[in-house]
Queue: 2 jobs
Job 1
Amino acid sequence: MSTVMAAALRRGRDRYNSRFAYAMAGQKMLDPAVFEVILRETIAPLVEAAHSARPAAVDHVLESLFDVALALLGKGLLGPYGRIPGLGERWRMLLESCPAMLVADPGRFASAVANALCRFEGAGNHHGDAWTSTLMRLAPVFSSLDELFDAGRIVAWRLGILDQREPAFRAIERLPGQIFAKALELDKPSMVTASVLVARLRNDPWLAPADAADQDFDRREKRLCLVRIIGGFRGFGGVFVSPPMVDAVDGAFVATDRETVRELSADRFGHSWRRPVPESLKRSDPQPTGPWKWKAGELKWEGLVGSFPELAERSSAAAIGSTMAVTLPHSHNVYLLAPSISKS
Amino acid sequence: MGLIKRLFGRISESPTNPTPPKTASRGDKKGVVRPKKTLDVADLYEGPLTEGATSVDGSSASGALAEKLRQAYFWIINTAVISPFYDIEYDDGPGQAITIGDQKSAFRLPTGQSYSSFILLPLLNLILRRRCLLVGGPGRGKTASALLMGVLAGYSLKDVKRAIQHGQPQMTIADLLGNPLPSSLMGAASMDEVKISWRKWLGMRVKIIDEYNRIPTRTQSALLTVMADNYAEIYDQIYECPEGAWYLTANDDAGGGTYQVIEALRDRIDIVVKALHFNSRFLKELLIRIESEIRPEEVVPAEIVFSEAEINRAHKEILQVGIPEAVLKRIEFFAGQFEFCEPAAEQFEYKTKDTVKLSGIDFAQIDACETGKDKIKDLGLQTRNGLSVRALMTVLAFAKALAWFRGHEEVGFDDLRQIMPFVLHDKFVQNPDAPFFETAGCGVYRSDKIGWIRRLFDLACSEYDRLGRDGDDVVAAMDAEFRLEGLSEADVRARLAKIERQIGEWAKGRKLYGHMYDDLLKLKYLHQRYTNYLTWLRSSQS
């Protein structure tokens, strides 16, 4: 163990021993040997990083990280037997890459990052690594923890955490242009203001951020595309046991087979299935598909025409705004169609 | 290990107040409907770990803060401070009272969730950001309790300990507030150029003054400025302090100590909490602490630590708690009992205890005056002062806080009854010579101020009920009727006659008690407003 870490532990020996004893009293799972390893391999490098940034902050950083690590271990999230493999490593790497923020507010930083990494796992999304590495790459541009958190929301949305879509939009409006452009992975700075960019993205769930940032957005040609195929047979890790039917209920797609009813949310970066509220299903009537029109294998929407012969024998179709969901009698999938900007 | 687990168990994960009643228990029969909660989409940074149990944006669901404070309360009471006292009593149904001892003391077993004032009131003070005095003998946990409040406010134990101001006879203003920097003092051409090194505690949101009655009088005056006006001043330099909760400790709440506490400083104390004795039946718990080397203040769970934003939000939530009209009227009636002093002056407006106090006359002389009233029934005789506006505002604020803590949206009668003694503890100056204290079983109230004030309130409420003020309040009815716009001369005359008739009724045979004094002054006010209007009406018509 580094001398900095050893000295800091020595200074707060009674305090730390007391906290561990308290935690032990409440959580049988805590193993002193495992926590020792965490202190040596995960916390010590962070304390070293804090020491390089601001030596006076070492005790405060250690105290905060000690508590967070203890809580994570107690909840079975950290350590060699942790429920989320690699969590400790990713957590350490991101914290280590932002030493200035670590010393500024270690408790908030450490617990927020741990929570975010747990959220990825909780949402069945395995892009925690990508989220960490993206934020590490962007670390030099952040001037505050709030900027890092906002960029984190944008990156999480792009990595498929769908409920971060609205928080990401609000983050774009708060962040400086240079940071949100990097978080959205735009090749060049946005040609439009953040509010225009957000309005375009909010209006079209399938729009790429780079297209939304284009000055010539209004002149770009659109065509109807098959934007996503989702669902699948449960036996192969999908959602449905038999080919589903789809409907639009209270502004949301609801797909059902003979066993399952699921509400679908989707955009360019991800999708999610949720159990709908039963009351909303009871009062629902089949929704007309509005301006969407089928003619043989051709689909028409607001002057755009697309040819989808493979969907001609559809078993159900429903439309919400610019997105149409279609199911087939012999497929466990739901097919999503929407207008999309043609590649220039 | 089992014992350690029992003593230092984790914070309660189940609701600490699972079925809070939604209506006040007395004087308020209106139901309270909680606003429907809206969907709260989880933030990316919310999850199994809480940094002070808040999201990164500092947001949390409505009602969560009260639950968090209850969790903090139960963690302290079950883990940190051994205070097995439940002196703030609530009953969900008929409570049980058993008479014990020669004095025939009532030993009550409350049926509702009851609380220890020593823990609960400092917690409410933390959220309300008021000034709390912890009194009691040495080693009762006064300073430890104050320390915990600092840790709960998000400060490290080290910072809180360093920020404690220990009162001692040699404490100077510089010790308390800070020093001018010697270099700037030498080079300064004017006072403006003197730079002050302010003491760190001034900038904290929790301020602890240990043994404040050992601070010399001059330094107490400097402390008064900080407590009252929230700023410190040295060499014409001003330091603006943030809003914060104050905790002062004293071994003797009567103002004794090395120095007499100046009255203005005592008056700034919003609530007084007594540190009760150590119950020897809990000695084993102490032994476990020694053996396990656990110091509770070092292991405060992060889940119960409040950020500044949370305290601000909780404070706002408390202000939203309503006080029903029926409860407010009882406060009015109670507060009206004490200022009136009939022999104090000739003119009606000056018939107050303040007049006596300012004149320097001994209260015993006033007590000796015969007014023809029942000296036991007249509650005003039991005090040597009335209630200040500040005291009433504090009563209202703490009653709201207590109701909020219990998960209520409106203050109930019981909240008021429970909180009043602690707020008015240092506000009322008792008149120990009052005949009331000579009656059977009431001598004990000379030393038991908490019990005395609660008894005062109960007696006031009995009188309120006897007079049927909930249904028959002539002054309130006249006040509700008061409106000048569009009144004809005949209407005004009718109203003036009504006021005069009412005053005449009262003058017929009833003795003059405190609450009637305020009623009379209110009627005089209404009479004057109508009279002025009548004069204007006549002049405009002629």
Note: The first strand of chain B starts at residue 96 and ends at 100.
Job 2
Amino acid sequence: MTDINKKLIDHIAHLARLRFPEADLERYTQKAKHILEYVERLKAVNTEGIEPTAHAVDAVGFMRDDEAQAFDNREAILANAPERDGDFFQVPKVL
Amino acid sequence: MTIDTLHQQLSDKKISSVELTQDYLKRIATSNPDLNSFITVTEELALADARAADDRIKSGKNVTPLTGIPVGIKDLFTINGVRTTCGSHILENYTAPYTATVVQRLQDAGAVIVGKLNMDEFAMGSSNEHSYFGNVRNPWERDHIPGGSSGGSAAAVAALQCVAALGTDTGGSIRQPASHCGVVGIKPTYGRVSRYGMTAFASSLDQCGPMARTVRDCAEMLNVIAGFDPHDSTSLNLPATNFSADLGKSIKGMKLGIPKEYFIDGLDSDVAKAVEAGIAELKKLGAECVEISLPHTEYALPCYYIVAPAEASANLSRFDGIRFGHRASHPKDLRDLYELSRTEGFGPEVTLRITIGTFVLNSGYYDAYYKKAQQVRTLIKQDFLKAFESVDAIAAPVSPTAAFRFGEKTDDPIQMYLSDIFTIPCNLAGLPGLSVPCGFTKDKLPVGMQLIGKPLAEATILQIAHAYEQATPWHGMLPPGVTL
């Protein structure tokens, strides 16, 4: 059983681009610990030689030709931008 | 009022779609402050759809059973030009630039879109208590939850705010609220219905389906929304199916499996009684009921709580505050922008599931959690396939209890998750499942019976449910204060 502690959850939060203040970190650590302990019961199942299932239906995931298609509602996409500069999405300085 | 009755009245010109739509908009205006089932009412769009429907009916061209019928859409399907929130603060001001395939198909059939329905944030929840836009109240008992995550859809149909609605079901989100609100809801086989324009939660489990007051209405809705869509790479390319074709046919001689693992400690006695009475009725109708075993049932919930958060954590990474959605004010740099926007934008349950999902996919834990869960998923699927070698369908409870009170399970996530213990296996195996009303508890809360079918056998479970429904009084009952 992995030790689910605040340091680990803080690291996971960073990977998920989330940030927990101290009080929230404690709460999320407790809840995550509770759930991850619960799912541990899968260990009781013998899965040796069992193929993993990623999709329940086998016949999924078809390919199509990689061709550009016109989208005629461009302005409606840009209109959702929290900040924009003309036709560009604006972000804080990166470098 | 059902789709076929209203269709007849519209065709006979006894009522126009505009009049019908105004009537439903009035019902929404009256009851929504109390129920909170709608996040957005699309009055202008509805009246425009209704006028177009009336023109179609007048010309007699392209009239379908749904032409002119008011329907509601769970607020995680996009409609071009309409706000789509997914019940989340992060999308509070998002206006979709395109329309989901299922909504487009409803509009092409002439349906009238009356609004966007409340839901647990990003469909994560079983009680509708995780919506940024507040709780939906159960029309049968106001201090009880409507179920979730399609709680707004179920409540709106039960309270006659719309004739039918679209929901989505990742682990029971159509069937459980349908059961709790006394309506019919079906989750089709994975791949039957397009997911294009349906905001992704867990992509290998998510499936859209209809909710309505009768089995026939659900079949009519499914006839319109199902079918191949080149915009969804997991859409099944199959010939069109008529889901109402077998309604009314006898179920005599059909073999139904009753899984012993679904009748366990923790199953509420009133719920057990209602479902057992439902099974007895199916026997009376000529079905043969036999006990079966689905031995890995107890592992479905822990399996789901690895697979679903894992997929969710990947899907929800798109909400980054850059192109759309909430952006934190005054971020120092790009990382600050991502972290603050996401932390401010997501509610606690979504945040928890992203955390769990990121953890189980993290290198070092992947094999122990995610791969293990995928292997268990194989075993759960095999249980069903084996059972279906000897039975035509499976009958079981939908949820271990009827609708519970607000706040009753909010502190303990596992207690909340347990309300989906009987619906989750179906999603893991990709099978069709439905909930049909089968009675009430002592406290007058609705109970649903679940029917699970073989892959692509929606028509069979609809046939069984219809036979049951026609032999019982439940579908005709309305919540207190609701009148036709």
Note: Residues 3-254+459-476 of chain B form a domain with the Amidase signature (AS) enzymes fold (CATH 3.90.1300.10).
